[in-house]
Design goal:
Elements lengths: L1 H17 L5 E7 L4 H9 L1 H4 L3 H5 L2 E5 L19 E6 L2 E7 L4 H12 L9
Parallel strand pairs: 1-2
Antiparallel strand pairs: 1-3, 3-4
Length: about 120
């Protein structure tokens, strides 16, 4: 049991350094009871991870009614939900305030993603 307690933290540290860091993320700022968040969840969320945009900037959800995540301290919160903040290497690239509907969301997101650094190998 003692050996396991020593090995597990070392193994976790090794894995953390071995995995590639995600350079870009789309942070969805949401709150419980948000009607437009539910609309986004119905129209966009099920397919998002399967799209080119979703692979380039995976969706991460942040509940604005809870404590702000430590790794997002440099990113301003929002009162409008949903809001979408595109970050790259921990810095804000841009944001979409509110959910403008499916077609317009993809258009605005594509404009933001065009501002990202080109992917490795591109």
């Amino acid at each position: 049991m003692r050996a396991t307690k020593k090995i597990l933290p070392a193994l976790a540290a090794l894995l953390a350094t071995a995995l590639p860091l995600q350079a870009a993320e789309l942070i969805m700022l949401e709150r419980p009871g948000c009607v437009w968040c539910a609309k986004f969840n119905e129209e966009i969320a099920p397919a998002y991870a399967k799209t080119e945009q979703g692979r380039r900037a995976p969706l991460r959800r942040v509940d604005i009614t809870k404590e702000w995540p430590e790794d997002l301290q440099g990113i301003a919160s929002e009162r409008i939900t949903p809001s979408f903040v595109l970050i790259e290497d921990g810095k804000e690239v841009g944001r979409i305030r509110g959910y403008p509907g499916g077609e317009f969301f993809w258009y605005l997101l594509d404009e933001l993603i065009a501002k990202l650094d080109p992917p490795e190998g591109a």
